[in-house]
Design goal:
This protein is mainly β. It is built from two helices and 31 strands.
Length: about 400
Amino acid sequence: MPCIDASPGHGGRRLLTFNLNPGWRRSLAAAASLVAFVAVACNGGDVPPTAPPATPIPATPTPTPEPTAAPRPTRVPRPTSTPVPVPPPMTIDGYLIETFSGINTPGDMAFDGENVWIAHVGDNSVSKLSDNGRIIATYPVGVAPRAIAFDGEFMWVGNNADSSVTKLTVDGEEIGTFPVGGGYTAPAALITDGTNMWVVASWGNSLHKLAPDGEDLFGIPVPGNHPSPWAVTFDGEAIWLASLNLHTIDKFDLDGGLLGSFPVGKRNVDYEGVGTDTGGQGPTALAFDGEAVWVASNWLDLVVRLSTDGEILQEIEVGEWPSGLAFDGESVWVSNFVGNTVTRLALDGEEIVTLPVGKGPVGMVAVPARPGFDAALWVVNTSARTLTKITPPQ
């Protein structure tokens, strides 16, 4: 079982840290074995066949059933989904932590200036949420939507299973659904540069630039043996791309030109557990804080801060298996998938607080304060099928 340690942290706040059994990584890395079951026939000796009876057995006529009235149809009740238990609201070091259920297969989240949106991977839809986690409206999109992003006017949704993106108004009206690349490309992440939408194609191993009308202007192939591009951010001038199976991140200009490829950290380059050219290092998330690019590497429990020139500024150890990043205007939040926590970091990399959330946190969206509402961080707990809302001390 995890051990919880509450100890003084940054600014006199208490830090909650979770220590998992160190053998988890070995268990995670173990391959499943295939077991074959072979049926063996045993012969206990030759047995002579049974002779037929001397007198034939007469056939027994089958009685004709009397006509009966047709049976009344049986009314089968529709199955009722089991409610997901959620913990009650709690406050830790001034942070209010609330949990909401009702999302069976949560994907990523986005904020449209008024409401948080959530993609329903298994329901082929997206929903707009109220500030208390209630679903206001649900709109159909493509198959297996996961990625979602707001461009300042429209909501864009990446449909993973049918390799397309859907563009919606904030009232849910569909403007159009547009293919990304050719064949199965599996959109995994989206970012706007202020005009165009950039789409990460994880299975297509490419990055695509879509015009506002949905036209696929071009695709940039990512070299390597299935690099699986996964995350993207925009620094105001260039697009940054992270691929799960590479140990570097790529920087592109808005015309698609490669400006550079940069290691995600010295520890990662020296890491010999899987290799440094492909596989295992797991750059899973990117964020830009206005000055530096942040990269989460899940295998190494590490967040790296880079300058926009690709210089490594800092390497920061965080919780178990960091899988998401979000910038809230003042700090950077990290979701720790295996640790079931989120960590808040100051822009100098110092840890402010680590807080418990639901099981398997990944996607996050930071919501700024607005009239009548405090600033908050929303977290997708993928394994728990819940959402967590964290309201920091005001």
